[in-house]
Amino acid sequence: MTRPRTAALLCAATLIATGLQATATAAAGVPEYRPCVSSPEPAGGPAREVLDIARRAKEELHLKSVVLRVTVDGRELVTGALGESMTGVPAEPRMHFRAGSVAIAYLGTVLLQLVDEQRVGLDDPLARWLPDAPHADRITLRMLGDSTSGLADYVTDPGFLADYNADPFRQWTPGELVGISAAHPLWYAPGTNWSYSHANFQLLGAALEKITGTPLDELLEQRVMGPLGLRDTRDGGTPDIPTPVLHSFTAERGTYEESTFWNPSWTTAPGAVLTTHICDLARSAEAIGAGQLLSEHAYRTQLDPGTVGLPGPTRTCPDTVCLPGFNTEERHFGLGVTVVNGWVIQNPSFAGYAAVQAYLPADRIAVAVTSTKDCDAPAGNNSDTITKRIAAALAPDHPID
What we know:
Elements: H1 3-16, H2 45-60, E1 63-72, E2 75-86, E3 89-90, E4 97-98, H3 102-116, H4 141-145, H5 158-166, H6 174-182, H7 198-212, H8 216-228, E5 249-250, E6 257-258, E7 275-276, H9 278-290, H10 296-303, E8 331-333, E9 338-340, E10 343-346, E11 349-350, E12 353-360, E13 365-373, H11 382-394
Antiparallel strand pairs: 1-2, 1-13, 2-3, 4-7, 5-6, 8-9, 9-10, 10-12, 11-12, 12-13
Helix pairs in contact: 2-11, 3-7, 3-8, 3-10
């Protein structure tokens, strides 16, 4: 049982709380804005344990920086920043970084809000709004949101990878990107399996604009960032990042180099290419993970829109695409989120940035982590590793594995 442990966390959180107070629902009002700063150094207890986990991971994984925030029942347990943004520039919680796939949780949330309002149905065909999109008569809004369309992922295309590596500052258009996916056969009949494809969210963003008649950046501000008080989460329309900036570095092109301002236009739909800071990311974890912007029915749908029980690898969809051991009750993709052993997660990782927002509804624990790499850091999302260790310490009955 984790309840006694959670009660202890709440007591500790009350003692050191200095941050945002979560609201029960968006309708209860926007949270009071507080500056995003480090907590006082904790002497002991769960807050100290979390910081020690981060410190050990930073050294073990050869990370340049680790920035984190953990809340329990909407109250700050700990906020901290370790290491440097650049040489001689300490990392700080208020520094901004790219939010990546966190935005697709927002796209899924907006879609479900429109379903709640009876403006659309999840099983409406894409052709109703984007008739020229690939397979638009067979692919539905649900299939875009839960990534069951069967569309190939353009980021695995050799031509895309070669062009991206040759010029990481290139501005990509949705038409170019979806066209790359459309040039490949469907991996499976739409709706019959699951595979992650960035093309789904390019198309979903465009569909949401058509449905509402509102540019996507304004739509997300009106329906997600504004109601939740995410004042430091936005799409700036360019590869720029608001100051102060957490700089990123990567060796993915064969040499360790700064990648802070590589163009993220390929990552998701225009208008949803967001930057954020760690306090907003933790608030986002709480709100999305608890379904604060949705009806109870829509929230249940977001956590399982029909992906549980899908077959995984088949003769026509290899295990590199249709993942084995996925689509179970314990681990599956929802509508823009991943559900792992009760945690509701998004974990963006690209161009040297790696982050996680994770929320455990059973214990009301939110974890937000971002990290950057030194030259000998391992590949992959190292913030995932840190989040798993924090989850194991704070909620041992709900490991993220």
